[in-house]
Amino acid sequence: MEPTKVLVLDERRDAPPELLTALDKLGTVVHVRTPGDVLAKEVGQLPDTDVLLAYAGLSPHTVRAVARRLDDEDQRPTVVAFAEHDLHLLGSHVHAGSDYLVPPFHPDLVRARLRDCHERATFSRTMEDVAAHAELLSYERELEIGREIQMGFLPDSLPSPDGWEIDVRFRPARTVAGDFYDVFELVNRRRLALVVADVCDKGVGAALFMALIRSLLRHTAEQSGLQSLIAADLLGEETDWEEHSRAIPVVGATPLLNAVVGTNNYLTRNHIRQGYFATMFFGVLDPVTGNLVYINGGHNPPVLVRADGGDPVLLEPTGPAVGVIPDVAFSLGYAQISPGDTLFIYTDGVTEARSVPGHFFGEDQMIKQLGEGAARGEELLDHMDGALSEFVGPAEQSDDITMMAVHWRDPEA
Amino acid sequence: MAFDVRLRVNERVATIELKGELDAGTAARFHETVDEAAATGAIELVIRAEQLSYLASAGLRALVFARQKMGDDVRIAVVGATEPVARTIKLAGFDHSIDLVDA
Q: Could you tell me which residue ranges the PPM-type phosphatase domain spans (chain A) (predicted)?
């Protein structure tokens, strides 16, 4: 068995001669140090220590500082306070969790005490490890529950109107995500709401705001009737939308505006201090005509890929990110999807995917890949997935990735 | 390039120089520096972004905090942002509350 290594801690760098003699007879390796000696040493310059034998005249605070210093080097010694005459000094050390050693310092007695102290310390450390591990498991379980609850804020299944294919890929970078998507029917099933959004930042905070923002958007959109004028009231007098709406009333524009403007107002009124916001694309599609009316709130422009090989169309922002600027106006954008076309909506996890050397995938490469992808939605997503994994290689996924493909089947193809 | 943030204050203009990537891992250090800048009672906050290579959404959130922390009367300017950083700021519509200025 290896000799026990003892560090005797004392302000005057001495110790009771009987104690030192006993330790010597037991064959222990003894170093005597002052607290100053230990605390001033560089990492790696402290003697190996199994037992820290501290004079009780030192304050428990000092002894703890020295023990922590040794802990930093993964030594984790058993801490034992000793006193020769002033036995009352031991009280505060025992309260602080140390063990104690008192005269007579007869070798056999000292050995028995040190062995007891060692066993007690080992047992107590084991208990601490078990408790810490249990706590960690409990956090992990809570986070897993969080993930499951968050999945409940995504649609169970996607509607598929006649002739349309809607496919989604959703890959969170962590257990919980800030990205979300939604697809639901509006206006007596005459319109389809398409949402892809990205709550800023990462982790549990982003996930909580994801749940809030998704619910506000969907609830407000579903509760907005055809004739509702709330949107017009919420908007200023001179918005693009009002001018436009006087010319062409668009079915589905009211729930769209109510949802985005209402969510922006709710967030800026109630949560502005927390600084969370979401970039989002919210489109309302007429599956019969392919007409799309949308709001892009500071989100990466979705790409409309043309079946006829024409240039892809980018659906640029029509307003800022949602939740930052109080009472801001959002304009409506319009696009026409034709049979065979695919609308690709995504989050910045795609364009900001990084390769091992740290390069970004980027919008140009994404658009190029979209041009090469097969026409149908599912195949397009497969193609993009493949291009992304090839680009990223073994690098860790740093951000949530969401992709949605909305494809109108060409009946003549 | 490793992230770095430096603050200097001159005649009530606080200048924060950013280097590297402002993201979820580094935004906290930017927040602290903005707190320091706000504590000096600066009337203008200039963010030198010539060497800021990447602004993630957590970095955009940090700009929202800077806007709140400095108060509405303080002008905030991002100077010399590279094209990708300027694009991120414009895309989110933050160029309405923060001035984007060429170096």
A: 161-408
